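Researcher: Structure for this, please.
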Amino acid sequence: MARIHIENASVSYFLRNKGDASKTAERGAVGAQIVVGRRYLEITALRDISLSLKDGDRVGLVGMNGSGKSTLLKLCAKALAAQSGKVEIEGVVSPQFALGSGLRPTLSGRQNTELKCLYLGVPQSLIAERVEEVKGLSKLGGYFELPMNAYSAGMRSRLVMSLLRLVRGEILIMDEWIGAADPSVSGTINELQSQLIERSQILLLASHSKRVLADWVDTLVWVDRGEIRAHGKFDEVYKDYETWLQSRKQ
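Model: Predicted structure, token format:
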């Protein structure tokens, strides 16, 4: 059984206040509220959020850049702690957005993949097999044995996307749909993502693509300035969200 229960949770980021920060309090079109303190600036990424997800839920997140979607995903992935409120997560969490984090440029593709296996909790007996699967999917050949600082941007992208092969879990957290410019990899990556979604007990997916959301979720959460503005059926919430977006362009 998998479950996410968030009750009245708030998350803030703090920056040291340097010089004249009076203008930082000005509200813009995007981003969380900035509270100017004497020594620190507080960015209130999430404010008093409540959300409950259970087995079978397929939930999408929408909102403008800086609305708090990624922070909410990290909270659900246990990558962030709330300053206040209650957060309860039951089940194995697989955060897809963290695939490229922690990779070390001085280590080879193989060594980085082995480290990622340990980070994702791959059993020791399966690591060698999983590493070979990533190598085959990446199609990096001999470059898989070289340090990542010898890779082109495209090679690094291939390795990061291929790490999707390592993802397992009951709760799948996705920040946008991974795409690949190289057609030799994109089809396999899309297939892997589809399989992961179908196997997962809970899906939480943030995306700006209506097509991706419509394909995979039936419920939407609209996040705006760190608060949940709407939560309900996909068609109803997305219609309101689109109307709101159009009103801002006028």
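Researcher: Any notable elements?
Model: The two ends are 46 Å apart (CA to CA). The chain has seven helices and ten strands.
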